[in-house]
Amino acid sequence: MGTKGGPAIRPGGPNPTATLLELGGRPVVVDCGLGVSRGLVEAGVPLSSLETIFITHLHSDHVLELGPLLHTAWTVGLKTPVSVYGPPGIAAVWDGFCASLAYDIGLRIEDEGRPDLRGLVTVREYGEGEVASGVAALRVHHPPVTECFALRFEHEGWRVTLSSDTAFFPPLIDFARGSDILVHEAMLMEGVDRLVARVGNGARLREHLVASHSTAQEAGRIAREAGVGRLVLNHLIPADDPEFGPEDFERAAREEWSGPLTIGSDGLEILREKVPA
What we know:
Elements: E1 19-23, E2 26-30, H1 36-42, E3 52-54, H2 60-63, H3 66-75, E4 82-86, H4 90-100, H5 102-112, H6 117-120, E5 121-125, E6 129-132, E7 135-139, E8 149-155, E9 158-162, H7 171-176, E10 181-187, H8 189-197, H9 202-212, H10 216-226, E11 230-237, H11 246-253, E12 261-263
Parallel strand pairs: 2-3, 3-4, 4-5, 9-10, 10-11, 11-12
Antiparallel strand pairs: 1-2, 6-7, 7-8, 8-9
Helix pairs in contact: 8-9, 10-11
């Protein structure tokens, strides 16, 4: 639902990070960048059917629309419990949002007879290891953020791993080993050079990107050494530079990965039956 790395949005460009998994016909949202509510609606998922949300880390491009998503779902009829899993600090994010919308929430409860949104949402902070049934987390390397987690989902013999934001991180190889799908962030260094040339804090931004994110080549290496079924590139940097397109990410990833490859785009759907065993 969102495939762009970073919080900025630009005309005609993709949205920041948000992914929808359908496990046993039930929606699971991973990360809530700007646009996630619209993305779910356009994917045909009723917001009132929300059950489970995972947040990988607290950078704004992954968490900014968590509160608005839940509030919007509530205004369109959400009446059943929602579980939110996130790293340490996620409870404060949710509590802060509820405090900021306390007037509106209270008014709608009194005026419209709605259940209390705050009572519908349960927030669980997690660390490395088992997070929930069929879900495991690995702390990855995304400085200066220390609580950033890759997530692995297993359901009915299938395994999907999402890298979250991370520099090249060899422990991710074992964590993702044998996954049917690996969704991994990807960066083009030549695109980074153009990006930093047009922003005011270019030198500092480049330093952060190089230290905290993976190139498409490195994503390909992780996929190859983990023996995954398909590599999907996501959290693309740059994602909205007209000088670079999917073919550039594919060419870079192919330096290390020869298997099935998908370059992420907003609204892209990957069907299980089309993924090779």
